[in-house]
Amino acid sequence: MQNIQINQARLFVYNLLSLFFVEEYTKTKQEEILKNLEILSENSFSPVVEESAKNIIKIISQRGKEEIFRQYQDLFLIPFGEFIPLSISWYHEQREGGIMQLKVKDILGKTKIRRDENSFTAQEDHFGFTFTLSAYLLEKQLNNEIKEDLQKELFVEVLNPYLDKLFYKLMSTKSDIYSNIGFILESFYGFEKGYLEL
Question: What count of other Cβ atoms lies within 10 Å of the Cβ of residue 66?
Fold first, then answer.
């Protein structure tokens, strides 16, 4: 049995993750990121998440909002140094555009939406896109516009097998913003697995 309030909270967290993992959003939605971090720090589902959200707020207040995009670039766009891939296919088969991309496209095919190429220059199996899609699917389910649990299918088939690889990489990075995101992601991943009974 799905709980409406829990699903609204899950939608909020997926939206926040989307803001941190879609390149365009790290440049243009810093105010929304800060506002959502404040909400998360005050309504956290674990002490680790509360502390991590507060840490990120402090970093941004000390260095400026542009720090989010700068750290995004350093970690996900510059292909040397601490580079962390955001393609789920890369974690599955060490290449871009593989089976995981097809799985996301299959789930997308069951909806009326398509990837907005202005916001999403990356492929469908990019973590930023899958977080955004998860939020969208949860919103549609809450509004009774989608009957089947496509978000659960996306989590089980695409996110669940590889999300731990992402958050472990993030937690060990030198990026102080994204290492804290790694801790939030780890807590949320544990919650999702329990809630979805995996």
Answer: 12
Residue 100 to residue 197: CA distance in whole angstroms: 22
Radius of gyration of the chain (CA): 16
CA-based nearest residue to 196, from 19, 8, 5, 10? 10
Of 186, 137, 159, nearest to 86 (Cα)?
159
Mapped onto helix, strand or coil, the DSSP state of residue 93 is helix
Which residues fall within 8 angstroms of residue 142, CB to CB, at 6 or more apart?
4, 7, 8, 11
Per residue in 50-71, pLDDT (tens digit) is 999 999 999 999 999 999 999 9
Q: What is the pLDDT of residues 136-186, one digit of tens each?
A: 999 999 999 888 899 999 999 999 999 999 999 999 999 999 999 999 999
- ∠ CA 55-121-179, rounded to 5°: 20
Helix (H) or strand (E) segment spanning residue 65: none
Amino acid, single-letter form, for residue 79: P
Cα–Cα dist 39/41, whole Å: 6
- pLDDT, tens digit, for every residue of 61-114? 999 999 999 999 999 998 888 899 999 999 998 888 889 999 999 998 888 766
